[in-house]
Specification:
The complex is a heterodimer of chains A (368) and B (578).
Chain A: E1 12-21, E2 24-34, E3 39-43, H1 50-58, E4 65-70, E5 73-74, E6 85-88, H2 100-110, H3 115-128, H4 144-156, E7 162-166, H5 174-191, E8 194-199, H6 202-208, E9 211-216, E10 219-224, H7 226-231, H8 236-241, E11 246-256, E12 259-264, E13 267-271, E14 284-289, E15 294-298, E16 305-316, E17 321-327, E18 331-337, E19 351-356, E20 362-365
Parallel strand pairs in A: 3-8, 3-9, 6-7, 7-8
Antiparallel strand pairs in A: 1-2, 1-4, 4-5, 9-10, 11-12, 11-14, 12-13, 14-20, 15-19, 16-17, 16-19, 17-18
Chain B: H1 16-19, H2 21-49, H3 60-67, H4 69-102, H5 108-114, H6 117-120, H7 123-134, H8 139-150, H9 166-191, H10 194-202, H11 207-235, H12 239-245, H13 257-267, H14 271-294, H15 318-346, E1 348-350, E2 354-357, H16 360-400, H17 406-418, H18 421-431, H19 445-470, H20 473-481, H21 486-497, H22 499-515, H23 531-540, H24 544-569
Antiparallel strand pairs in B: 1-2
The chains are: A alpha+beta (368), B mainly alpha (578).
């Protein structure tokens, strides 16, 4: 790795921060830690407060309550230009009247870096993002992907302690998005830079992150490594937002030493690693059933635990087939068949049995 | 269920005005400027109009205005002339706009350029040119006399159409102000999604049905706002009534409001009555301004689709098309005639009598007005430059660094746009003359400069804020994010992006100031004369040759500045369309 771009990673610690716009709390008493040198994703639908949170770290908003630390410094009230954070904006925000070189050099010039140092550092940064030879282009002459690379070079050339990415891939087409995703991850790991990444795309978040923070209506629903978020969702919102989930209303019948027993659709299930929440007998909850943990069988099959139902709809997708199965009591389950055979597909109206991988069933609080 | 924990403590930060000292200082400067140069002069006029000789207050002058036949006739003249001229301006402006945006007429580019020419000329210059064309000795009337004589008419003058009177004032003001209506209409027409009209025809609407039920209703807000704007300018006009109106208006005993205010002050030295008329002139302008600014903006049908579809022009009936062509051609020819006749007049020995070529008028003009020319160039240039820079800086403050109550400051700073020139000039004369004051500037270049500056600042603010709307604020955030302090970011990022706007505001201000008379007529002094005033005096004194020569000097010098800025900015006259 080129020495001019080495970065000293720092953690970002947001402690109980709140930001209000008028009466609305866009971010409501949120605590998040972005570990040093790791990539942390803020994930959620639009309006969940993820961008507001990022902008508070960048210094564009000040939290109304709570503190933000970068390393061991409290940065509340510190204006953006005095912070060691650099942002790659969703629209890239390249300066339209400057060339690629001037754009990248801007941060160095603005902070008074010695003239002799600027040239080589800018060249290094431009090379790092693979734009050699384009330094003298004006920013309007670049493709979307190239503009984004300039935005990265411009941010990285100043050796920030923290890199902030605001939906950086949302303006690219689907193929380029997947490609850039891998490049961003590689760049981040090579440089070892603390990165906070805002996105509404759960696939992007899962594939990139060391830690995913799922936000909902200004609050954090869950934070943790991607596999924990997926396999052990803390709330119905998280389970619903990440991947496809079926929810089936259930009642806790009994507590056991190694799990709980629930009643769902008149069937009694013994679950072994059911939930992160404390549960009580008689409490209502929702079973989270991922389509890949459900298996379609003939109606008369036995073995394991299953529900009887009727095929309502079939979608053949090539690599997989997706079934909608109607259970008694107006419940529709999405079931995935990972190896469909065209001739052997079930048809709408077929009576079937849906078998569950009981050891993967999870329970979140809530009623249907 | 967890017990709700107390909120995290609030961190104390310093108040914003301390954290951003540059912004605070800039606001202080803008606030002070606006208070001193807008509020103070306006209030002095108001107070002066109700002050009696003994230091008490009186409404006697207003009572006199609204009971005297003479003053009421002045008011009626103003309303009638302005109303008719406004209606004609709207019709012409719409015809031109429709022709260039909705038809495939030949010479469209030519029409679009010519229609902007009157914006570069002062109203009284157009009125003056009309004298050269249609005065008693005007070329056209001379020709009509010859025709009459040739036909052996009993009265060989019968065919003449002499321009003096209400019809002349209306003609001059229509020519002067219809380009404004044109700009509003063509912007509105260009932004109406052509698919709406296509849809109307697709649903079976004929051309006229579509025009009447779809196109025109969509244009209603634009029509309304340009009507208000044009009426406002018409009602406070001084040039054309002064040159063409004398004693021949609808109510021939009386003049119009703006000239009357000037007569009261400069002719009769009646400051009380002059300021009273000025206040009466302010009221409708102010109502129109407030209405247009804060009501009309909210209801516009302009459809912004973001996808400028290269739409094919719909078929316009040939009769409509060629009628439009005839109108555009006639008006354009007339406008070009106005310019040509002035140039011809400058080099003709005695207009209407002896058409020998001569340099004499030009020499006289240059000798007598050399000082005025330099003064005008320097003061207009300086005032316009200051107005452009200061105005755009203010626009930046108002839009990007707002504080509660910024709307009030914005409104006050925009006021000189609505206040007629007579009012701003008179206000300065009263406020900074010996009669009132602690600051005496009468007879100095400073008072002219400041007047130019404050009257053009609204244009800087307006064009600045519309240009800033085009610049995504995230660009500035990026600069701050990369470590640029606010002043550095403004200097290196925002200002370069506003360069074309600054130049546009400068040119527009410069032209306006070069050609202005209504305000500066109160402010000039023997030591500080101006080209526009010399020109007006020459017209007033009937020295047509010298007046034409001075007009040529004015046109050439504004044109040169225009050309230089055009080169500098690499753009055409686009800024006029903002």
């Amino acid at each position: 790795m080129n020495p001019t771009l080495r970065i000293e990673p720092q953690p970002v610690i947001m402690q109980r921060i709140t930001k209000r716009f008028g009466a609305l709390a866009a971010v409501d008493d949120v605590t998040i830690t972005a570990e040093a040198g790791q990539l942390t994703t803020l994930l959620g639908p639009s309006g969940c407060g993820k961008t507001t949170t990022l902008r508070m770290v960048g210094g564009f908003y000040d939290p109304d309550e709570g503190t933000i630390r970068i390393g061991d410094r409290i940065v509340n009230g510190v204006p953006p230009h005095a912070r060691s954070t650099r942002t790659v904006f969703q629209s890239y925000a390249l300066f339209p009247h400057m060339t690629v070189f001037e754009n990248v050099a801007f941060g160095l010039r603005a902070t008074g870096v010695a003239r002799a140092e600027i040239g080589p550092r800018v060249e290094d940064a431009i090379a790092l993002v693979g734009l050699q030879g384009l330094a003298q282009r004006s920013s309007g002459q670049l493709s979307g992907g190239q503009q984004q690379r300039v935005a990265f070079a411009r941010a990285l050339v100043t050796r920030p302690e923290v890199l902030l990415l605001d939906e950086p891939l949302s303006n690219l087409d689907a193929k380029l998005r997947v490609h850039m995703r891998a490049e961003i991850r590689k760049l981040q790991q090579d440089l070892g830079i603390t990165t906070i990444y805002v996105t509404h795309d759960q696939e992007e978040a899962m594939s990139l992150s060391d830690k995913v923070v799922v936000m909902n209506a200004g609050r954090v629903d869950q934070q943790g490594p991607p596999h924990v978020i997926y396999e052990r969702p803390a709330t119905r919102f998280v389970a619903d937002f990440i991947g496809v989930s079926n929810f089936v209303a259930a009642t806790v019948v009994a507590l056991a030493a190694d799990g709980i027993e629930v009643d769902a659709l008149g069937t009694r299930l013994a679950l072994t690693r059911p939930t992160t929440h404390e549960v009580y007998a008689g409490e209502a909850g929702l079973l989270v059933l991922r389509p890949e943990h459900l298996h379609l069988e003939d109606a008369d099959a036995t073995g394991g635990v299953g529900f009887a139902g009727t095929v309502a709809n079939v979608a053949y997708l090539g690599a997989a087939a997706s079934y909608q199965v109607a259970l008694p009591g107006d419940t529709l389950l999405t079931v995935e068949d990972p190896a469909p055979r065209g001739a052997a597909l079930h048809r709408p109206g077929d009576r079937v049995r849906v078998r569950l991988d009981v050891e993967r069933v999870y329970v979140v609080p809530g009623e249907s | 269920m967890a017990v709700p924990s107390p909120r995290a403590p609030r961190l104390r930060t310093r108040p914003r005005w301390l954290r951003e000292p540059v912004v605070t200082a800039a606001y202080a400067a803008v606030g002070l400027t606006v208070a001193l140069l807008v509020l103070y002069p306006t209030l002095t006029i108001l107070v002066e109009s109700v002050r009696d000789g003994e230091g008490g207050l009186t409404l006697a002058r207003y009572q006199r205005f609204f009971t005297s036949t003479y003053f009421l006739h002045t008011l009626y003249n103003t309303l009638l002339v302005s109303g008719i001229a406004t209606a004609l301006s709207l019709v012409l402006g719409f015809a031109f706009a429709y022709a260039v945006t909705r038809t495939d007429l030949p010479l469209k580019g030519f029409f679009t350029s010519v229609v902007l020419v009157p914006m570069l000329l002062p109203a009284f210059l157009i009125a003056f040119a009309l004298i050269l064309l249609l005065g008693r000795n005007g070329v056209i009337n001379r020709f009509l006399y010859e025709v009459g004589a040739w036909l052996n008419l009993a009265d060989p003058y019968a065919l003449q159409w002499v321009v003096f009177g209400s019809h002349g004032v209306i003609l001059a003001q229509t020519l002067t102000f219809f380009p404004m209506a044109f700009l509003v209409f063509s912007a509105a027409l260009a932004s109406i999604d052509p698919r709406l009209e296509e849809a109307a025809e697709d649903l079976g609407g004929s051309y006229w049905f579509t025009l009447r039920r779809v196109t025109l209703p969509l244009l209603a807000p634009a029509a309304f706002s340009s009507a208000l704007l044009v009426f406002m300018f018409n009602a406070s006009a001084f040039g054309a009534p002064a040159v063409l109106g004398g004693g021949r208006l609808f109510f021939p005993q009386a003049s119009m409001l703006a000239p009357e205010a000037i007569i009261q002050i400069l002719g009769l030295y009646d400051w009380g009555m002059g300021t009273t008329i000025a206040v009466i002139l302010v009221v409708p302008s102010l109502i129109i301004f407030v209405f247009g600014e804060y009501y009309l903006k909210k209801r516009s049908y302009v459809t912004v689709t973001g996808t400028p579809t290269a739409f094919t022009l719909r078929a316009v009936p040939p009769t409509v098309k060629w009628t439009l062509f005839a109108v555009c051609l006639l008006v354009s020819a007339f406008i070009i005639g106005v310019v040509l006749v002035v140039v011809a007049g400058a080099f003709t020995r005695t207009w209407g009598v002896n058409y020998e070529l001569t340099w004499r008028h030009m020499q006289t003009a240059l000798n007598a007005s050399r000082g005025s020319i330099t003064n005008s160039l320097l003061l207009s240039g300086g005032g316009a430059a200051a107005a452009a820079v200061f105005g755009i800086l203010s626009a930046y403050l108002f839009t990007r660094r707002p504080f509660p109550g910024v709307r009030v400051l914005d409104f006050t700073a925009m006021l000189p746009y609505a206040l007629p020139g007579v009012v701003m000039g008179l206000g300065f004369a009263v406020a900074f003359g010996g009669r009132w004051s602690w600051i005496v500037l009468t007879g100095t270049a400073t008072i002219i400069f400041l007047n130019h500056f404050i009257r053009r600042m609204p244009f800087g603010i307006r064009s600045g804020s519309s240009a800033l709307k085009q610049i995504d604020p995230v660009i500035e955030e990026a600069a701050a994010d990369l470590g640029a302090r606010p002043v550095y970011a403004f200097r290196r990022v925002v200002f370069p992006l506003l360069r074309a706007t600054v130049l546009g505001a400068f040119v527009f201000g410069f032209i306006n100031m070069m050609t202005d008379i209504t305000a500066v007529i109160f402010l000039v002094s023997p030591r500080w004369r101006l080209l526009s005033i010399d020109l007006f005096n020459a017209i007033d004194a009937g020295r047509l040759g010298v007046a034409a020569a001075l007009s040529v000097i004015m046109i050439v010098s504004t044109f040169v500045v225009l050309l230089v800025v055009w080169r500098l900015s690499g753009k055409g006259l686009d800024f006029l369309r903002r």
